[in-house]
Amino acid sequence: MTTVCSWLRDRELEGICSEILALITMPLIAGSVTEEHLVVEFSNSYFDELTGLSSLDLPETLDVLLSGIEGPRDLEPLYLAAREKGWKTVRWTLVPGEIELELYCWSGDKHFLAFFHDLSPHEFHARLLVMKERFTQLIGLYDVKGMIPQMILELVDHMGVDWAGIFVWDGARERWMLSLEEANPGEFGRDEQHSALTFARDLSEAKGGPFGHQFGGLPVQDGARWWVPWVTEAREWEPMMTEAGFGSLFSGVLLTGSAPAVLLCLTRTTGGFARINRDVMESLWPVFLSSAERNRAVEGITKLYTRDPVSGLYAQNMIYKVMKLEMDRSRRYRYPLTAISVEVTNMGQIRETGGEEAVAETIQRLSREILKNLRSVDIGGRIGDGGVIVLLPHTPLEGAEVVSGRIKAQTGSVSPYQNLAIETEVRVALMDDNCSGPEDLLALLGLSDGGKRTS
């Protein structure tokens, strides 16, 4: 462009420059460079469309003209280009995740001319094409149960999502249970305050919850989706997101009914779910909904972990699966995980006195007393004939010992017979580096895989 202008000037053809500028079908502005501002003295109709204003009262400063554009605006790239003589071509993120521009700017010290090409539609189509190809491959590789975890992983790998998880409502315990998750490796090892898992759980319990009809700012109803494109405009959620270090989020209802399911996606960068990624997610959302419905049909993510009919806690075979899941999360996010085992040591005597009905009533009463001492994030399960095991995420050994002390003090009064107190043994263990699976954590509690005492 510089060469062309010089050629025109040498041949006294500068008059056609205005005709050339009139042919530019991009937002274009020209004006003066002051010490503090860029003053726009001329603009074309394409720039007027960008600002959303029908008629511009010029001259006016650039920041005022662009003040109507939603989101956190970054004008620094144009300011810098307009203050450096000559022609420049710069990639310009005017609004993170919303408006991506290619800026062409000429500066003659006190004056500037700039026009810019909107790359946002191209960025959207490029990302959508990648996701379409990836999802098409997944359909050919996985069955319905394997599809959703892989789809979430694609969001992390190709759309800049730092953490994504699916929560299912557990009506028995009245809380949201994390069913599956995927995360950027950079999320592993963060402290609890900035952990994605902590933030997600806090979000699920916000506004006095947890409630089955609401997840954070998301109403749990068909078709509901919740977008926070920029943390600076998150309103009531801004303090919570800022403290955890998240710049954007998306949440949508996958399933409703007795066991609703929601997808939560988080990004550390602001603008992660502004227009570009939002349009991509809107295009992909029917695939997520269809997969979730098919998954429900084959008892996938909405099948709640099997419950023990007596205690209401997780059954033994399922508590082992939950233990493995929680142990993996503890290793991944580097937070402490402790376990408490409570065993009725005179269950045989109770059975001789009142039969299986007395055993069932004892377990029911014991479970109720234990649950009174647990937080919403703690997990309880039945193990063995007269035992209960409790998992306490984010809890050091000292904290677990306090909880176990309270449990032990209260279990003596749960017997169904006044003249026969139950006797319990309560043990505490902290998962360490040598624990590779549930059997190792059970061993620290002196239990075998079947829940029997080994020591």
What spatial form do the alpha-carbon principal axes imply? elongated
Q: Bin the helical content.
A: 25-40%
Low-confidence stretches: none
- How many separate domains? 3
Counting helices, strands and paired strands, the structural category is alpha+beta
Query: Quaternary arrangement of the chains shown?
Result: single chain
Terminal Cα separation, in Å? Answer: 84 Å
Please give the order of strands in the largest beta sheet.
Answer: 3-2-1-6-5-4
- The appropriate CATH architecture of the largest domain is 2-Layer Sandwich
What is the makeup of the main sheet?
6 strands, antiparallel
Summarize the structure in words.
- This protein has 455 residues and is α+β, with helices and mostly antiparallel strands.
- Helices cover 38% and strands 24% of the residues.
- It folds into three domains: 2-118, Beta-Lactamase; 123-297, 2-Layer Sandwich (Beta-Lactamase), CATH 3.30.450.40; 316-444, 2-Layer Sandwich (Alpha-Beta Plaits), CATH 3.30.70.
- The chain has 14 helices and 17 strands.
- A six-stranded antiparallel beta sheet has the order 3-2-1-6-5-4.
- α6 (120-141) packs antiparallel against α7 and α7 (144-158) packs antiparallel against α10 (275-297).
- It is elongated and about 100 Å long.
